[in-house]
C-alpha cells in the first residue's frame, strides 16, 4: 500500500514539475525579451562585422520576428533537448551546463553535508545546554553568520587563507595552462576546500539555530517531562526523545535550503572564480548569453524543486504519524 | 500502623510571569501545602482543573520548570527528599501516571517507551516484565508495536497505568487519571489504583473529580486558591456533611448532585491576586475581622487538618 | 522569602523595557546613518592621490582607497543607500504580499493560483529571480528595488494566508457574511486591522534580506551602476586590490553592512517577541 501512495505522490510531483518548468520558461523568456539585451551585439562583441553578416545573424536569432514566433521556436527546440549554443563559450549550452553543474553539485553537496552535520551538532549542544555559555556562543555565531553577506565572508576567507597565508590558490578553477581533464584530484580538491568551507560556515547558522530552537521546544514537551519522571536523564534522554523528534524536521529543513544553497554558490563561485554553474550564470547575465542564462534558470529550478520534493516526501513517508495514518484510511 | 512514605511540609511553588505592558507578576500556584501518605493509602488532592495541582506532582518528582520556585521540605521514608534523592527515586520507587497520551513520545513505539532507558542486557528481562504487566491490564501484543497516536483513550490510560508499575514502585502519583474517559474506563482506572493500594503501594491521586476521589481515596485534601484548606477522611463525606469542618468543604459536599446540588456564589481568587487574608474570606458565610487580617495556618484537629481561624468553633458545630 | 522575590523581580523586570530600548536605540542609529548620508558632501569624497591606499589610521579610520577617498565616508554613504533600497524593496514586497493575500480570499480558484505562485517562486533560486528581473528592467536603482521586492513576498504571503484562515473561523466573520456584507467590506473592516501587526512585522523582517540581496546582486554586477556609492560596488572594486594586501577596502564596508543587517534582524526578532507574548517567558 505504501508503494501505491508513493507512486501517487511521485506522479503528482512530476505533473507539478512539468507545469513549473513551463511557467518558469515562459516567465524568464518574457523577462529577457523585455530587457534591452541585443543578442546579436553580444554575439559579435568587439569584433567588427559587415552589415550583411549582422543581417544574417539577426535572421538567425529572429530578432525582428514577433515574440510569439521566437517563443515557439525556443520551446520547440527545448522539447528536442536543444538548448541552443552558448554565446560566450561558443559550445552547445547543454555541454556547458553538464560540466558546470557537476562542479557546482560537488561544491554544494560537500558544504550541504558539512553544514548539515555540524549545524545539527551545534544546535543540539546549544539546545540541551540552554542558557549556558555554549548556547550563547552558538547563538551569537548564528546571529552573526545569518547577517553576514555571503560574498563578504568569501572575500575575507580568500584574503586570509589565500592571499596572506597562501594555503590555497587565489582562484581559477584549474591551474593556468592545464586542461580541465588533466587536473589531478588534489589540485581540484585544493580549489574546492575554501569555497566549500565558506558555504558551510553560512549553512551551519541556519540549521544550528533551527535545531536549537526545535530542541528547546521539544524539551519543554510533556513527554520529556514524563521521561524524566521515569528516571531518564542526561544524554540518553536527549538521544532517545530529543533527537528522535528533531532529526526529521531538521533534515527536512536542510532539503528545503537548496534555494539559498544555490544562491550562496553563485556568490562564492564568483569570488573564488570556481568554474561552476553560478559563475556561468553571472557571466551569461553580464554578457547577455540568453540561451545559457535561460537554461541555467531551468536547471537550477529543477535542482531546487528536487530538494523541496524530497523534503515533502520525508515528511509524508517517514514520519509514522502521517505514514501509518494514511495506511489506516 | 503502616509506614509513612511521603511527608510534605509547607511546600510553596511560585512562578514569574509577564503581565500586560512591562509588568511582571509572581504567581503563587501552591502555597503552604502540607500532606503525608503512608503505605497502602490513597490520598486525593482535590481542586478545580487548571489550578496547578499537577505542579505538586512535578515538585515531588523534581521536574518543575526552571522558572518555578519551590520552598518547604519533603521527606521520603524519613529521609530528606532533595533533588538528588528525587532523581534517584523517580521512575523507580516513585512512579508517575501522567494525565494524557501527550506524555508519551509520539515517535516511539509503546513497548520501547514502557521499558524505558536501559542497557542491552537488561532489555530482555524488562521486556518480559513489560509484557506481563501489559497482559495483566488487558493490553495485547499488538499494542507493543503501536505509536501513541494509534491508542484509543481507554487503551492509552491502561498503558500509562501499566508503565508506572514496571518498576515496582512504593509510591504512585496519579495526575488527573480520569478526564476524557467513559464511565467504565473511569471505574476500571480507579480499580487499578485501589489494587495498587491493596498491594501496599501509597497512591497520591491528583484530581478535580470529587466522585472519583470519594470513591477510591482514604483521605482527601481540598485544594482552594493554591491552599489546602482541609484534609478530611473520605468517610467524613457522609450524611449532612456534619463531620466536615471547613465551610468550603461543606459547600462542595452540598453542591454534589446526589446531595442538595446547592451552589455557593463567587469564584476562587486567581493566582495573581496576591492574598493577604483567608482565601475563602470573600465567600465565607461566617467571616470575622481576623479572617481579613491574616492567612490562617493549617492546624491539626484530631486526625484531620483544617485551615480556618474558626476551626474549633466549626468543629463543635456552633454554626 | 518576600525579599528574595523582590530582588528577583527587580533583576528580571526590565526584559521588555530592554527590548523596547534596543529597538528605539537601533532605529535611531539607522535613521542617523540615512540622514547623515544625505549630508555627505561631494567634496569629502573627492580624490586625493597623495593619500591613496592608506591603511586605517586616526584620520581615516577605515583607510583610504586607490583614489585617496576616505573609506569611512564612502561606507556611510553606501549604507545609507542600502537602507533606502532595502526599505523600498521591502515595501514593494509587502504590497505584493498584501495584494496576493486579498486576491486569494476572493475565490478558491484564485486561492489555489496564489498558492501555486508561492510554490513557483519558492522553486526558482532567489538570486536568479533578482538577476532576471533586474536585467529585464535594465538594472539601476529602479530595477534592483523591483527585483528584490519581487523575490521576497512569499514568506509574508504565507504568514498572512495562515492568519486569514484562522480569522475566517471567528464567529463575527460568519455573522458579517450572514448579514450580507460583501467580501471586500469584510476584508477591509475585519481582516485588515487584525493582520496589520503581521504586515508591519513582516515588512521589518524582509528588510535585512532585502539589503543583503541588493548588496549581493550589485556585487555581481546586476544591481546599482558602478557610479553609485553602494556597498556592493565598493566590495566588488575591492576584489581588484585584494592581492595588494589592501584588506581594509573589503573588511570595514562588509563588516558595517553585516552590523546593519544584524541590527535589523535583532529589531525584527525583538518586535516579534513583544507582539507574541507567549514567547516572552523565555
What Rg of chain A do the Cα atoms give? 24 Å
Supply the CATH class of the largest domain in chain A.
Mainly Alpha
Mean pLDDT of chain B equals 81
Number of extended strands of chain B: 12
Please report which band the strand proportion of chain A falls in: under 5%, 5-15%, 15-25%, 25-35%, 35-45% or over 45%.
under 5%
Structural class of chain B: alpha/beta
Q: Order of SSEs of chain A, N→C?
A: HHHHHHHHHHHHHH
Major sheet summary line of chain B: 8 strands, mixed
Report what the structure shows.
The complex is a heterotrimer of chains A (329), B (319) and C (282). Chain A is mostly helical and 329 residues long. Chain A has 14 helices and no strands. Chain A has two domains: 77 residues, no CATH class; 232 residues, MetI-like (MetI-like fold). Chain A is 78% helix and 0% strand. Chain A is globular and about 85 Å long. About 2% of the residues of chain A have low confidence. Chain B folds into two domains: 221 residues, Rossmann fold (3-Layer(aba) Sandwich); 88 residues, no CATH class. Chain B is built from ten helices and twelve strands. In chain B, the strands form two sheets. An eight-stranded mixed sheet of chain B has the order 6-7-8-3-9-10-12-11, with helices on both faces. Chain B has a four-stranded antiparallel sheet with strand order 2-1-4-5, covered by helices on one side. In chain C, 38% of the residues are buried. Chains A and B meet through helix 9, helix 10 and helix 14 of A and loops of B.
